[in-house]
Amino acid sequence: MSVNRWMIYDWMKYRYMKTGVKPTRDEVLNQFQGADFEEIAEGIAEFNQSTRRNLGKEAERMRSRSEQVERFEIWYQGEKIGEA
To answer: CA 31 → CA 28, 40, 46, 70, distances in Å?
Structure first.
């Protein structure tokens, strides 16, 4: 069976989900020795694009959560000492 970009993408995604660390280019090349370099490059590009898109979604979720947090003042013995 020949290796295609989606096999590489899936391996990278699985590895990332399992370890929490993005695989390096050298690790991918080591894992898929003998595979067509163009397929490897496309698989890596798909994975990088996917992780950027997902990180963007996560940042947007975090922003919307922070906007929902209620602000309040902190007072001590009749004097305002801060905000949270």
So the answer is: 5, 10, 17, 49
What residue type is 16 in one-letter code?
Answer: Y
Tokens of 71: 């602000």
CA 19/CA 27 separation, integer angstroms:
13
- Residue pair 36/28 in contact by the 8 Å Cβ criterion: no
Mean pLDDT of 32-45: 94
For residues 11 and 14, give the distance between their C-alpha atoms in angstroms, rounded to a whole number.
5
- Taking the C-alpha atoms of residue 62 and residue 24, their distance in angstroms, rounded to an integer, is 27
pTM: 0.64
Rounded to the nearest 5°, which phi and psi values hold at 4? -120, 175
